Amino acid sequence: MTLVRGEVPTGMSLLVVDATRDEKGFEHKMSERIYATLQAAHVPLAAPLRKPMLFGEVIKELNTTYTALLLVAHGRGNRKDDAALIKVADFVTSWYLLKETGIDLSDKFISLCVCEGYCDDMVDSVVKSHVYANTVVGSREKLYASEAEAFFPAFYKSLLGLTEGVMIPDIFKEKVAEYNHLAANKMVAFSLGFTAP
């Protein structure tokens, strides 16, 4: 599937990857509940829930076939250090370095679920390059499990039926605004294709 600027993939096929290694003891259960709710809502899923334990396994998963990605990971930055740091499985990297692995997400719609730590630049850095990603939804601060479990299934369910035709990124922005109360208004949408700020 080819993605042109201002459009996102149609015919959603969602891949859910939990790259947290269950570090805090709640993440895998949270991801399982999100996945089960998505499944019950008949959101098209590309594969069973993935829980890779090694960075290389994450990269392998991200190079499979899907049109939308929900990546669950931990932030490792803070306001004094590199705010783009993120822990992906067993490896601390940054969104800027992650794209150097050769993953092509240019034709994917990405949602980021960072439930531990701080990662201020995660959304901005993913869309920084035109060839890396077009539209990203994520939070500007730590999400609690209950917020993630409420927001992501409702958000993706709201896209059903809309993904059959060409979707401009503004639709994602509108849906984030509509369901943001479920995540205590922490969610933001960034895109190269927004028609207005």
Structure summarized in a few sentences:
It is built from 6 helices and 7 strands; from the N terminus they run βααβββαβαβααβ. With 197 residues, it is α/β, with parallel strands linked by helices.
- Radius of gyration from CA coordinates: 15 Å
Count of helix runs? 6
User: How many structural domains?
Assistant: 1
Mean pLDDT, as a whole number?
77
- CATH top level label: Alpha Beta
Which architecture would the CATH scheme give at its second level? 3-Layer(aba) Sandwich
Spatial shape: globular
Sheet with the most strands, sense and barrel status = 7 strands, mixed
Structural class, from secondary structure content? alpha/beta
Question: Roughly what percent helix?
Answer: 25-40%
Low-confidence parts, pLDDT < 50 over ≥5 residues? Answer: 1-8
User: What percent strand?
Assistant: 15-25%
From the N-terminal CA to the C-terminal CA, the straight-line distance is 27 Å
Q: What name is given to the CATH topology? A: Rossmann fold
List the topology elements.
Elements (H helix, E strand, L loop, with lengths): L13 E5 L8 H14 L14 H8 L5 E8 L9 E4 L2 E4 H4 L10 E6 L7 H5 L8 E5 L5 H14 L10 H11 L7 E5 L6
Parallel strand pairs: 1-2, 2-5, 5-6
Antiparallel strand pairs: 2-3, 3-4, 6-7
What would you note in describing this structure?
By secondary structure, the chain is α/β, with parallel strands linked by helices. It has one domain (about 15-190): Rossmann fold. It is built from six helices and seven strands. It has helices at about 25-40, 55-60, 95-100, 120-125, 145-160, 170-180, and strands at about 15-20, 70-75, 85-90, 90-95, 110-115, 135-140, 185-190. Helix 4 (about 120-125) links the parallel strand 5 (about 110-115) and strand 6 (about 135-140). The protein is globular and about 35 Å long. Mean pLDDT is about 75; it is low at about 1-10.
